[in-house]
Each structure stands twice: as structure tokens, then as C-alpha cells.
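step=encode ok
step=design start
structure_in=
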């Protein structure tokens, strides 16, 4: 498999964690999201992902999957061990809710093209953009903090899709210096996850395209 990735992309980071948890090997194809105006906008990459975003996962048969949550659920269906979702339907809904809170409600508002629109089209300065960024993380994390159950992971003793989404979002928060003292459960889950090799190997700084 080939993973179209960017070391700092949190959606790609989620996918790398899932691939590692499943023990799957893959080749990284780096797509630089800012160099040359953003290499995701090249015709070559557009042919791979018409949405011009990472991640994209090219399977051995040539099919290409996009959208990190869809990719991760595909991996979970085809490689069921270890499971990333609980078997109980209610528990599964809670895990998906936490994952979607991050992937659907926080992350899109802080994505590269969203921030570029604020800066370039709406002419906001960097301080305003940073305040925007922190605001959506703080609102989302306040809800997530209340949803986390006794650990060490978000929903108990097993890593789930919720943890896979949480760790990259915490990395983004730290990169933008968003204070995390109000979120001790989130910080504890992040530390527990990063102690696992699958999470550690997926960190931005451990990627072949890291800068
Ligand atoms: N919902 C998508 C989000 C993908 C996404 O927005 N990726 C970002 C990097 S984290 C990207 O490629 N941004 C490029 C751009 O906005 O131009 C997913 O979960 O895969």
C-alpha cells in the first residue's frame, strides 16, 4: 500500500496510527502541503485525490481510498485485529461521536486551506488566525474532556478510533501553543497513547518527510 501523506497533516497522522496498530507496512509518498503553493494542487495529485487533500491510500489493486475515517474503517473491516471499534453498538456510537467531534467539527475549521482563506482572502493577521485556531480546539476539547471515560484510553482499556483522532489533534494544539491545562483527561490519554510504538512511529517528527 502507498500512503499519500504529509508529516504535519493530522488526518494523515490518524491513518498512519491505524496502519501501525494493524501491523501493516506501507510506502509513504510525501505531498508537501505548502511548498510551491501546495503540491496537493498539482494535476498529478488531483488525479489521485480529486479533493486535493491528504491522506489517500492506494491499495495493492490500484484502488485509492480517501478520507481518513473511511480509510481507517476500511482497514478495521479488512484487518480486524486489533479492533478499533467496540463490538457493542452503543459503545461504538460513543467512540464514533468522539472521533467525529474531532475530525468533523474541529479539524476542518483549522485545516490549511481554511487558514489560508482567513489570511489571504479575508486578510486577517496571524494573531487573529491563531485566535480562531485556538477557539475551535478549546470548544471541541471542552466537550471531549467531558466525554472521556476512565482510561488509560478515551473509552477504557482498549485503543479505539477516538484515541486515533485525539492524539494528532493534541499535536496540532501544541504546535499552535493552545494551553491544555483545562483538559487533564485529554493530556493523560495522549501520553498513554504515545507510549505505544504504533502511535510513536506515526508522529510527525518520525516521518521520512519530516522537516
Ligand atoms: N476529512 C479529511 C480531511 C483531510 C484534510 O483536510 N487534510 C489536510 C491535511 S490535515 C489537507 O490535505 N489540507 C490541504 C488543503 O487544505 O489544501 C480526512 O479526514 O481525511
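sequence_out=
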Amino acid at each position: 500500500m502507498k500512503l499519500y501523506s504529509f508529516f504535519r497533516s493530522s488526518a494523515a497522522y490518524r491513518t498512519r496510527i491505524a496502519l501501525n496498530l494493524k501491523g501493516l507496512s506501507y510506502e509513504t509518498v510525501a505531498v508537501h502541503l505548502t511548498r510551491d503553493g501546495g503540491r496537493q494542487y498539482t494535476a498529478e495529485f488531483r488525479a489521485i485525490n480529486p479533493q486535493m487533500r491528504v491522506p489517500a491510500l492506494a491499495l495493492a489493486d490500484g484502488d485509492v481510498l480517501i478520507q481518513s475515517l473511511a480509510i481507517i474503517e476500511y482497514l478495521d473491516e479488512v484487518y480486524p485485529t486489533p479492533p478499533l471499534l467496540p463490538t457493542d453498538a452503543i459503545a461504538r456510537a460513543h467512540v464514533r461521536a468522539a472521533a467525529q467531534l474531532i475530525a468533523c467539527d474541529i479539524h476542518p475549521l483549522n485545516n490549511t486551506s481554511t487558514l489560508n482563506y482567513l489570511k489571504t482572502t479575508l486578510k486577517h493577521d496571524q494573531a487573529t488566525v491563531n485566535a480562531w485556531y485556538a477557539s475551535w480546539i478549546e470548544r471541541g476539547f471542552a466537550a471531549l474532556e467531558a466525554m472521556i471515560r476512565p482510561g488509560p484510553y478515551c473509552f477504557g482499556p482498549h485503543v479505539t478510533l477516538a484515541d486515533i483522532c485525539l492524539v494528532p489533534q493534541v499535536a496540532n494544539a501544541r504546535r499552535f501553543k493552545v494551553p491544555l491545562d483545562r483538559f487533564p483527561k485529554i493530556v493523560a490519554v495522549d501520553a498513554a497513547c504515545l507510549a505505544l510504538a504504533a502511535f510513536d512511529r506515526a508522529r510527525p517528527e518520525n516521518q521520512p518527510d519530516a522537516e
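step=design ok
step=annotate ok -> The two ends are 24 Å apart (CA to CA).
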